[in-house]
């Protein structure tokens, strides 16, 4: 006998909110320690629903990494618009990055990519690819801004934009690791200022006349 019962409608969900909640769990506990049951609980979706929406646990993790990267890239692009002095814009990038690295109800979490994806990248090629693409995206934004600074005379004509972009990006990664290790905000801010002085030259305001 044919079953004429209507199929239930697919459960609707907010993709961005789901990725935010899953990302928070991965960010705090890492990939391996974040169980499917815990992910189901924080996202308020059943395990079959999560699987239907994202695939397996690794696919969900990668989706959270991509969301984090895209959000970070958008924020950096907005700040590094060349509408203000390079020093001012770099200071804001570092300050807001540090805010995010330290923001947690418990211990500081650092950066989702640097803190968790760098661990999983060793054995998970798909994660390694996302990490590589993300680091490349951050470098590209910084390099573009540094090239504008050279063109506008903020940096010397012989400045190495690509090299300085790698330095600027590496400082962000260091801030993330140091924040996760428990370094105080004052120490992180000193590192940020030293990096900006290295890239832009000593701040004239620090010169004692």
Low-confidence stretches: 1-10
Instruction: Let me know the largest β-sheet.
Output: none
Coarse morphology:
elongated
Question: Average pLDDT, to the nearest integer?
Answer: 92
Q: Count the strands?
A: 0
Structural class: mainly alpha
N-to-C SSE string, H for helix and E for strand: HHHHHHHHH
- In DSSP terms (H or I, runs of 4 or more residues), the helix count works out at 9
Helix content percent band: over 70%
Rg over C-alpha atoms, rounded to the nearest angstrom: 21 Å
**Strand fraction:** under 5%
Pfam families: TetR_C_13
Protein name: TetR/AcrR family transcriptional regulator
Organism: Aminobacter anthyllidis
Keywords: Transcription, Transcription regulation
How would you describe this structure to a colleague?
- With 209 residues, the protein is mainly α.
- It has helices at 15-33, 36-43, 47-54, 57-79, 86-102, 112-120, 125-151, 161-181, 185-200.
- Mean pLDDT is 92; it is low at 1-10.
- Pfam families: TetR_C_13 (PF16925).
- Residues 99-191 form the Tetracyclin repressor-like C-terminal domain.
Q: What's the quick description here?
A:
The chain has 209 residues and is an all-alpha fold. The protein has helices at residues 15-33, 36-43, 47-54, 57-79, 86-102, 112-120, 125-151, 161-181, 185-200. Helix 1 packs antiparallel against helix 2 and helix 6 packs across helix 7.
SSE topology:
Blueprint: H1 15-33, H2 36-43, H3 47-54, H4 57-79, H5 86-102, H6 112-120, H7 125-151, H8 161-181, H9 185-200
Helix pairs in contact: 1-2, 1-4, 1-6, 4-7, 5-8, 5-9, 6-7, 7-8, 8-9
């Amino acid at each position: 006998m044919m079953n004429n019962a209507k199929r239930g409608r697919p459960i609707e969900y907010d993709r961005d909110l789901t990725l935010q909640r899953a990302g928070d769990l991965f960010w705090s506990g890492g990939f391996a320690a974040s169980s499917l049951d815990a992910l189901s609980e924080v996202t308020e979706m059943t395990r079959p629903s999560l699987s239907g929406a994202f695939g397996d646990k690794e696919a969900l993790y990668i989706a959270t990494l991509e969301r984090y990267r895209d959000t970070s890239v958008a924020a950096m692009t907005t700040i590094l618009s060349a509408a203000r002095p390079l020093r001012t814009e770099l200071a804001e990038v570092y300050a807001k990055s540090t805010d995010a690295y330290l923001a947690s109800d418990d211990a500081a979490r650092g950066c989702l990519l640097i803190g968790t994806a760098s661990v999983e990248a060793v054995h998970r090629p798909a994660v390694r690819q996302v990490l590589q693409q993300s680091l490349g995206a951050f470098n590209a934004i910084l390099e573009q801004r540094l090239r504008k600074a050279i063109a506008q005379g903020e940096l010397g004509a012989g400045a190495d934009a690509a090299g300085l972009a790698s330095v600027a990006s590496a400082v962000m990664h260091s801030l993330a690791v140091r924040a996760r290790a428990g370094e105080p905000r004052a120490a992180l801010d000193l590192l940020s200022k030293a990096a900006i002085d290295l890239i832009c030259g000593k701040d004239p305001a620090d010169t004692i006349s």
